[in-house]
TrEMBL record:
This is Ligase-associated DNA damage response DEXH box helicase. It comes from the Bacteria. Keywords: ATP-binding, Coiled coil, DNA damage, DNA repair, DNA-binding, Helicase, Hydrolase, Isomerase, Ligase, Nucleotide-binding. Residues 747-774 form a coiled coil. NCBIfam families: DEXH_lig_assoc (TIGR04121).
Length: 822
């Protein structure tokens, strides 16, 4: 088995009418010199050929005949494996006829797995979970003895998650066996490229081995908006919604293939159903795609897109990555994408080829999203892309990896400690932390010593740690991975045929005979049996929308700053572009009644109503930060005077409401500038923990940590444990550790993840520093301003039904519009 020379690759390109891009040649040259690196280039620019043909050329360079597994291609999604395999096989057939390409994911059947184990393909496409499974087999070192190159696709998607940490640890293990291994990451929408390269290549890797190659960044990306005909001056979340249905249908009408992205699965169901009702003639040529639909359904949709048989697909992040859909001409984004990287990623789904223009059209679902659209256009043009948060020392992933390595041939403590520290996320792992982790897998730590099932790894007479029990090994392999989904229930027709899966919490609220919307169909619920919900088709009635858990995506700092810059220009009387012209009446009312927040000015509004005394604050820092900020300020004020606040948040600000008067202006004196005040970062961690139900939040997060660490077993195939059973198990561990093992690092990790991920503590600290630097514009207002009105509606939403909410909001809007007309 050998590969093509660079000359042969050039001739193959020429035969297809192509010319290699400079960045592709740069990758080939670096890889042939044995250097690892990160390739960052636009979607559809030719990244696959850059790294794959580098791997093939390294085969031509190899001395002697090389057999066995030569290349690992790691993809974040199983759905991408088949598409990637077809692309790699096509070029390999022409350039390296001796090469074979296979896939090994959760979808690979047992017969194919057995065949691969007997004779490995030259290149194997796999996922982080399947790679860890391969590392758990005793013959792993033998299987990878010819491995020459690893390619990690969509590195930006993996890097910021525990799956990325899982990849880091796997790379450290493979580099231990193959020190000269060449590793390349492939990425499109990434902010901090140097950090991305360092995380990929690991700690202790000198710059002499790691290169950063940037592709042609001149790809034209057009961002525009569908402006609503009537822009409400008093907006509230989701109020436009389906008023934009006809403009969206008109856009779909004019193009052969369109992707309509929504931010949630529930939203995709609603839009699909309503488009189909408005255009029944499109039945069969529009489709729905999200992660809860059955694999067969998603495969059918993806193939229909590739073949140009579908006019439109309403989808979620399930189509953000990888799969090339050349026929797609247009991308519509319903609602704000909340981040520049996500918007660029979705834009790249259209014009997915070198030289073609990518276009994304924003469809606002409320007036404030028009402001976000204006900011997004500027940020995209400047390519201001968010960086990725990299998990720091997640002990649940480390504990899982230690058991995996113990299964895969065993380890010596000192040796594995040094190996693990070469993974970026564990570069600062201390000896004490390592000893804690070793003790935890060897005997369950301080509190689980008496239970044999938690003695998962024990040293033999030579000091090599191995898994002593085959049953423990079997259980561990079934739980490998860091994707922790909420307990899901299969949804099947009574007559047979699987539709997909839904969260147990939604199904548990249904009674026999209830109707609900799922998979674009109105279904009637019959019964639940053995974690399967049986249904039949219903007709005539609109059903409840299936709800999936998961917090709303907060607006990113880059998008927030871009929006504040647009407000600064508006405060100076400049309204550039159709979006700012459309939202001008709203902003003029806001400025007339109060003031416009900017990067230099923090606007505070106080108001008295029949409900109580309100404070509205507009930091523009995203809903996660605002929740922490509102709780923190309420707590700090409450320390000085006994008072209880109601809190409401959105991406633009937060509201505190008290049942009695508060001297807001005096409270915020010294909040900015040099004096210590409500925005002080001293004692921030303690105050945030005290201001929230931190124990409850940590307990919820601990469920995920416990599952990844192997404490909670989710059941055997066909006999899964219910969500209630898993909750009970993790809650028991949480209480035992809290009372008897307070130094347990899994406990402190759960608390840290709440702070870092749910409350975005780092961003909260940065926001407080920004607020210190802003001047305060304090306004006493007679009625809710446009910005404040949106926050009041958020608070109402928690208390009343949708029908009552609509009536109440309509009445308030009439009153406010009457006041605005004066």
């Amino acid at each position: 088995m050998s590969g093509p020379t660079q000359k042969a690759v050039g001739q193959w390109f020429a035969s297809r009418g192509w010319k290699a891009f400079p960045f592709q040649k740069e990758v080939w040259k670096a890889a042939l010199a044995g250097r690892s690196g990160l390739l960052h280039a636009n979607t559809g620019a030719g990244k696959t050929y850059a790294v794959w043909l580098a791997a093939l050329q390294r085969g031509a360079q190899a001395k002697g005949r090389m057999s066995g597994l030569r290349v690992l291609w790691i993809t974040p999604m199983r759905a991408l494996a088949a598409d990637t395999q077809r692309a790699l096989e096509e070029s390999a057939a022409a350039l390296a006829p001796g090469w074979t390409v296979g896939a090994r994911t959760g979808d690979t059947g047992s017969a194919e797995r057995a065949r691969q184990s007997r004779s490995w393909p030259s290149a194997l496409i796999t996922t982080p979970e399947s790679l860890s499974l391969l590392l758990s087999h005793a013959a792993a070192a033998e299987q990878f003895k010819h491995l020459d190159m690893i390619i990690i696709d969509e590195w930006h998607e993996l890097m910021g998650s525990k799956r990325g940490v899982q990849v880091q640890l796997a790379l450290a293990r493979l580099r231990h066996w193959r020190p000269a291994l060449v590793v390349w990451g492939v990425s499109a929408t990434m902010g901090d490229l140097d950090l991305a390269r360092q995380v990929l290549l690991g700690a202790g890797t000198g710059d002499d081995r790691g290169v950063l190659v940037e592709g042609d960044t001149r790809k034209q990306i057009v961002v525009d908006s569908l402006i609503p005909r009537d822009v409400a001056r008093f907006p509230w979340g989701g109020h436009l919604g389906l008023q934009m249905l006809q403009p969206v249908i008109d856009e779909i009408e004019h193009y052969d293939a369109t992707l309509v992205f929504t931010n949630t699965r529930s939203q995709s169901e609603i839009w699909y159903q309503n488009i189909l009702e408005a255009r029944p003639d499109w039945a069969g040529v529009i489709a729905l795609h999200h992660g809860s639909l059955a694999r067969e359904v998603r495969d059918w949709v993806e193939m229909g897109l590739k073949k140009g048989e579908l006019k439109a697909v309403i989808c979620t992040a399930s189509l953000d990555l990888g799969v090339d859909f050349l026929p797609v001409e247009r991308v519509l984004q319903v609602g704000s994408a909340k981040g520049i990287a996500r918007l660029l990623q979705r834009a790249g789904r259209s014009g997915h080829a070198p030289g073609r223009v990518s276009r994304v059209t924003l469809v606002p679902t409320n007036s404030m999203e028009i402001l976000e659209a204006a900011g997004a256009k500027v940020a995209v043009a400047a390519r201001r892309i968010e960086g990725r948060y990299v998990p720091n020392k997640p002990f649940d992933v480390l504990v899982q990896h230690m058991v995996t390595v113990a299964l895969g041939g065993g380890f010596r403590s000192e040796q594995l400690y040094e190996e693990v520290r070469r993974a970026w996320s564990y570069r600062h792992l201390t000896v004490e932390e390592w000893q804690w982790a070793l003790d935890f897998v060897a005997r369950g730590g301080q509190s689980l010593t008496v239970y044999p099932e938690y003695r998962r790894v024990l040293p033999d007479e030579e000091g090599v740690y191995r898994v002593p029990d085959t049953a423990i090994g079997r259980r561990h392999r079934m739980g490998i991975g860091t994707i922790v989904s909420d307990a899901s229930i299969q949804v099947k027709y009574m007559s047979g045929g699987r539709i997909g899966s839904m969260e147990e919490s939604f199904i548990s609220r249904l009674k026999p005979g209830d109707h609900f919307l799922f998979g674009g169909r109105i279904l009637e619920f019959i019964r639940v049996h053995e974690m399967t919900a049986f249904v039949k088709r219903a007709t005539g009635k609109r059903g409840a929308i299936a709800r999936w858990q998961g917090a709303k995506m907060p607006m990113s700092s880059e998008l927030a700053h871009a929006a504040l810059e647009q407000l600064r220009q508006a405060a100076a009387g400049r309204f550039e572009g159709p979006e700012m012209q459309a939202i001008r009446p709203l902003l003029e009312i806001q400025e007339k009644w109060s003031a416009l927040p900017t990067l230099d000015t923090l606007v505070l509004e106080s108001m008295k109503s029949r409900e109580g005394w309100h404070l509205f604050v507009y930091p523009f820092a995203g809903r996660s930060v605002h929740m922490g900020l509102a709780s923190l300020i309420a707590y700090r004020i409450g320390r000085r005077q006994p008072i209880t606040f109601s809190i409401a948040v959105n991406d633009y600000g937060f509201e505190l409401m008290a049942p009695e008067p508060v001297a807001w202006e005096r409270e915020f004196e010294g909040a900015t500038g040099r004096e210590v005040g409500l925005f002080d970062t001293e004692h921030l961690l303690e105050d945030v923990l005290d201001s929230l139900n931190a124990t409850q939040l940590s307990q919820q997060r601990f469920r995920e940590v416990a599952r990844i660490a192997g404490l909670v077993f989710q059941g055997y195939p066909g006999q899964p444990k219910s969500n209630r059973q898993v909750q009970a198990s993790s809650s028991l561990f949480f209480e035992v550790f809290r009372k008897h093992d307070a130094g347990n690092l899994l406990l402190t990790q759960a608390q840290r993840e709440v702070l870092e991920q749910e409350l975005e503590l780092t961003r909260l600290r940065d926001t407080l520093a920004e607020l210190h630097a802003r001047k305060v514009a304090y306004r006493v207002v007679q009625r809710a301003t446009p910005f404040g009105f949106a926050l009041m509606v958020e608070r109402f939403r928690e208390k009343v039904s949708t029908e009552k909410l609509n009536d109440r909001v309509a009445r308030m809007v009439r009153e406010l519009e009457k006041a605005a007309a004066v």
